[in-house]
């Protein structure tokens, strides 16, 4: 090997920020449980579970991957059949690619995650967005789906091949009326995909109750799993297409390219599952909602404004923060990040002072109180 290559930078890499309190929406629901941390160490070698595989990943009996994927996971998701994927976006792409044909239309909410749009684009589909209401609500009107379907039908002569709704969206944490959307799209014979990346594993969720034909979830965002990993749920009506096996190798499902999440990812999901199952019970989720609403109220008392649903029904929230923006004009745009970092509070991106989003999931009232106190101290320090 060349002497010019600085090998020292390829050794152990430590995260530079102590995360005593983590408010990052991408991480709060994915923080590993103690059991998952143990599984990560035990199963971190390559594709470790492949030692036990006879050719079909989801049929491995020991460790209990078969029982998890074919029994526990469908029951938990409220769907007929389930699979693990390499992320929610991979689940969305697999569903679109298997169900839709090139040139078909898909209707999505105006709050859709970019990966939903990219999944459709990769599947060579056309996309029509249902407009969201203006600031500060940014809500999705279920009737917008009917309007969008009618417009596509009028211009093409056909209804779209799929509808997608984001529940909740990753910007404002809004929870649209999925049941109403399902009734509307099904009245046109259009199947519904629910992107539950910030729902599945955090809150009560049941695909059949919502009226979903397909669901996509994220393990590393919301199921206390080492990523990347996601989940896919499908009804029996559409399972033959989504889970179709290869004509070249009868053991391998086409859309998963034969196998998906294996090794540490699937094993940490299984290890965390009892805790995830418990925390999604209605009474536990209600405590999370109460904490989120309390936290929002405290920030608004300091001159900030929470956008989106009010009262809020999710841990993910978006705030306008003029008080910090005004301070940044006199200090600099990174002052807030530095001040929070010095207090071991992580999750608000560097440079954001005019607005930011965060999550209160799993943080707890005591730690949220510490964040509130930190904000007050920072404001007093710079306004003095």
TrEMBL record:
Gene Ontology biological process: translation
Modified residues (N6-(pyridoxal phosphate)lysine): 221
GO MF annotation, one: Sep-tRNA:Cys-tRNA synthase activity
Residue positions binding pyridoxal 5'-phosphate: 88-89, 195, 218-220
Reactions it catalyzes: O-phospho-L-seryl-tRNA(Cys) + hydrogen sulfide + H(+) = L-cysteinyl-tRNA(Cys) + phosphate
Domain of life: Archaea
Pfam families linked to this entry: SepSecS (PF05889)
E.C. code: 2.5.1.73
Cofactor(s), names only, from the UniProt record: pyridoxal 5'-phosphate
Record keywords: Protein biosynthesis, Pyridoxal phosphate, Transferase
Family per record: Belongs to the SepCysS family.
Function: Converts O-phospho-L-seryl-tRNA(Cys) (Sep-tRNA(Cys)) to L-cysteinyl-tRNA(Cys) (Cys-tRNA(Cys)).
Subunit structure: Homodimer. Interacts with SepRS.
Name of the protein in question: O-phospho-L-seryl-tRNA:Cys-tRNA synthase
Source organism per UniProt: Methanooceanicella nereidis
Origin organism lineage: Archaea, Methanobacteriati, Methanobacteriota, Stenosarchaea group, Methanomicrobia
């Amino acid at each position: 090997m060349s002497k010019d290559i600085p090998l020292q930078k390829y050794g152990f890499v430590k995260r530079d920020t102590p995360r005593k309190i983590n408010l990052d929406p991408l991480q709060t629901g994915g923080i590993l449980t103690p059991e998952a941390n143990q599984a990560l160490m035990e199963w971190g070698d390559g594709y470790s579970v492949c030692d036990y595989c006879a050719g079909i990943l989801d049929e491995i009996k020991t460790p209990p991957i078969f029982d998890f994927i074919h029994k526990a996971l469908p029951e938990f998701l409220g769907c007929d059949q389930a699979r693990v994927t390499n992320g929610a976006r991979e689940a969305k792409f697999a569903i679109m690619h298997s169900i839709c044909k090139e040139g078909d239309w898909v209707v999505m909410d105006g709050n859709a995650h970019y990966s939903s749009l990219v999944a459709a684009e990769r599947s060579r589909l056309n996309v029509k967005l249902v407009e969201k209401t203006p600031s500060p609500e940014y809500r999705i009107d279920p009737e917008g789906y009917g309007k969008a379907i009618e417009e596509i039908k009028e211009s093409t002569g056909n209804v779209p091949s799929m509808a997608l709704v984001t529940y909740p969206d990753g910007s404002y944490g809004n929870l649209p009326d999925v049941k109403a959307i399902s009734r509307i799209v099904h009245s046109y014979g259009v199947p519904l995909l629910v992107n539950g990346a910030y729902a599945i594993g955090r809150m009560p969720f049941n695909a059949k109750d919502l009226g979903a034909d397909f669901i996509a979830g994220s393990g590393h965002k919301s199921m206390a799993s080492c990523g990347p990993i996601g989940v896919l749920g499908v009804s029996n009506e559409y399972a033959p297409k989504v889970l179709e096996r290869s004509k070249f190798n009868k053991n391998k499902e086409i859309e998963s390219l034969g196998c998906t999440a294996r090794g540490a990812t699937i094993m940490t999901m299984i290890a965390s599952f009892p805790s995830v199952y418990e925390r999604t019970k209605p009474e536990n989720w209600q405590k999370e909602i109460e904490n989120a609403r309390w936290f929002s109220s405290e920030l608004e008392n300091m001159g900030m404004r929470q956008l989106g649903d009010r009262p809020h029904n999710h841990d993910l929230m978006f705030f306008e923060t003029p008080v910090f923006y005004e301070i940044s004009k006199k200090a600099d745009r990174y002052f807030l990040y530095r001040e929070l970092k010095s207090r071991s509070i992580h999750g608000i991106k560097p440079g954001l002072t005019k607005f930011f989003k965060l999550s209160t999931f799993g943080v707890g009232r005591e730690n949220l109180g510490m964040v509130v106190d930190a904000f007050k101290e920072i404001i007093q320090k710079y306004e003095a």
